[in-house]
What does this fold into?
Amino acid sequence: MNLVRNFLSVYDFTKDEIYDIFLRSVVLKAERGRKNVCLEDMKIGLIFEKSSTRTRVSFEVGIVELGGHPIFMSSRDLQLGRGEPVKDTARVLSRYLDGAIIRTFEQERIETFAQYFEKPVINGLTDLYHPAQILTDIFTVYEIKSKSGKSGNKSKGAVSAADIIRNLKIVYFGDANNMANSWVSLQAVLGFELILAMPEGFNIDKTVKENSEKSGGRFLISNDKISASKNADVITTDVFISMGQDEEKEKIDKLGPFIIDDNVVKNAKDDVIFLHCLPVHRNEEVAEDVFERFSPVVFEEAGNRLHVQKAIMEKVFGKIKI
Ligand code: CP
Ligand code: NVA
It folds into this structure.
């Protein structure tokens, strides 16, 4: 049996481990450039079956900064892309590599890989979840709120992160996709108010709901974006058409009214935080002027991928357990 530690969804970490990751991310961000050998001489493969800018580069740079060696493999160049089974690819690569980061389609595909790989695996996005992104997103909120002095008891460190996060109202607008699912999983583990504002007929995947229920998660789906956004601390969205869904263009018309525009922003709290995992489609899921106004935070969020993922890799791949 494969007993190694994986990060395939948020449920692979406890609440305390997530807060440890945030504290470590703060240190890694502040001390960027300081020698760190947590992944010294480790060979980490990145096997990507979909395009990527942020995930690929932030993980590759993060591995280098932790003393390891990234090896990027697009499935187009691997026999995997010509039909070699995932379980065979995993059993071969397990003999060369010390860990892997996978971006793929069905969650079952990464689970099969992890089952046969015998080394730790991190999810770099599947159709179901994007866990490294969602930890970065909530870390970014924690960072902003703790700097703005609304952190509760700062001296308690991790406790103050918990205090900030459990009092948040977070509203996600748009498609019931891997980002929506990731918010649902994060809510189940950390606990905060979560509303998913989406059109009638859109719903969260059955497995995602079941996973949330098993962990005591609670979220609401609203078809009214204005009432949903009332007093929101965080508003967030994602592309209407995700990678691999290019045939589903009719979704854009249905989702169109759920654009984040000034009506949404005005209804939220005055200090509302807007997040977007990027890439953004301006004037589709968010109005261009709203996006540009909030863009400093969105690009800070993108930059934070590096620091949070280094903390995740220390925990999952690291020789020295932090
Ligand atoms: N947000 C995100 O995962 O971006 P990439 O698709 O560029 O990796
Ligand atoms: N939902 C998007 C996220 C991209 C980072 C996709 O899967 O394409």
